[in-house]
From TrEMBL:
<dbReference type="GO" id="GO:0016747">
    <property type="term" value="F:acyltransferase activity, transferring groups other than amino-acyl groups"/>
</dbReference>
<dbReference type="Pfam" id="PF13302">
    <property type="entry name" value="Acetyltransf_3"/>
</dbReference>
<feature type="domain" description="N-acetyltransferase">
    <location>
        <begin position="32"/>
        <end position="228"/>
    </location>
</feature>
<dbReference type="InterPro" id="IPR000182">
    <property type="entry name" value="GNAT_dom"/>
</dbReference>
<protein>
    <recommendedName>
        <fullName>N-acetyltransferase domain-containing protein</fullName>
    </recommendedName>
</protein>
<dbReference type="InterPro" id="IPR016181">
    <property type="entry name" value="Acyl_CoA_acyltransferase"/>
</dbReference>
Length: 261
């Protein structure tokens, strides 16, 4: 994997000199980095997602979280990262930085003093595939309303839009191992991913995050990164047999003229 010369298309990712693996250092934390997923991440992910301090706030991962779940997750995310890294490699002689449709780094790792690395969480950016019914009000574009008749069409269009289209609505998904909560790490991770990759390399203009009502920490992470709370969706989903209310946050590039549809 190691390549002797730095591919400028990776910018601003750094490259681990020993392994050739690209990474982003989380701003303000010398010992916390974000790297691509690795095939052997499963055993480290499993205890995090079996901890109720993590899973109670998450919709996707099954509970209990089994080795086969970690394997399916890695089978999903690793190829997405590999594909972007291959595109960047193929474009290495282009003078201009290409725009890509995914962030190749998503696993948050602590680098220990002996150089070993410990997976402590993840931060993913995906195209939003939910909440297509939440659209800007025609009377007041600062206000969002629910229009169920537009849900399916909006979600379908969001999937189909071309890479780099500023109207794509993106969404964050994240978690951190409880031992690392409340140290400012996720606030800085969101800031780093947005500033270093999502905006310059994916042309992201609209980013959303949905948190279950009561997830104060997660809401703060997004508010501190310039997101605003746009709507509360009562009883949005039934998760593990329980009805969940969703708080939806959105960040929009200042120059964005998107209509939210
Ligand atoms: C949500 C989560 C990612 C936040 O990450 P974090 O690194 O702990 O967040 P930060 O340290 O950057 O904290 C941001 C703010 O939230 C506060 N906070 C963090 N966890 C909190 C909690 N459990 N309860 C209340 N406040 C909390 C912090 O004190 C900080 O507040 P401040 O700015 O007023 O000091 C992390 O708590 C987590 O993984 N939770 C479980 C999974 C989850 O909720 N994922 C998100 C799904 S939407």
């Amino acid at each position: 994997m190691a390549s002797s010369t730095y591919n400028p298309q990776l910018a601003p990712l750094e490259v681990n000199a020993a392994t050739g693996e690209p990474f982003l250092r989380i701003e303000g934390y010398d010992d916390i980095i974000i790297t691509p997923p690795r095939w052997d991440d499963g055993p480290q992910i499993i205890p995090h997602l079996n901890d109720p301090r993590v899973w109670q706030w998450m919709q996707g991962p099954p509970v209990p979280y089994l080795p086969s779940d970690a394997e399916s997750w890695l089978n999903h995310v690793k190829p997405l990262s590999d594909e972007v890294l291959e595109e960047l490699e193929a474009a290495k002689d282009s003078a201009e930085l290409i725009t890509v449709g995914h962030c190749p780094v998503s696993m948050i790792r602590k680098v220990n003093e002996d150089g070993s690395e410990q997976q402590i969480g993840s931060i993913d950016i995906i195209r939003s595939h939910d909440c297509g019914e939440v659209v800007k009000s025609q009377e007041d574009p600062n206000t969002y309303v629910v229009d169920l008749t537009r849900k399916e069409g909006n979600e379908g269009r969001n999937k189909e839009r071309n890479i780099g289209d500023p109207d794509i609505i993106w969404e964050f998904g994240d978690y951190l191992a409880p031992a690392f909560h409340s140290r400012g790490i996720m606030t800085a991770a969101v800031r780093t991913i947005m500033q270093k990759w999502a905006l310059p390399r994916m042309n992201v203009h609209i980013m959303r995050a949905g948190t279950f009502a009561g997830n104060i920490g997660s809401g703060k992470v997004f508010l501190k990164n310039g997101f605003r709370h746009i709507i509360t969706l009562p009883d949005h989903a039934v998760v593990r047999g329980e009805s969940k209310t969703l708080d939806l946050y959105e960040w929009e590039a200042p120059e964005s003229t998107a209509t939210g549809s």
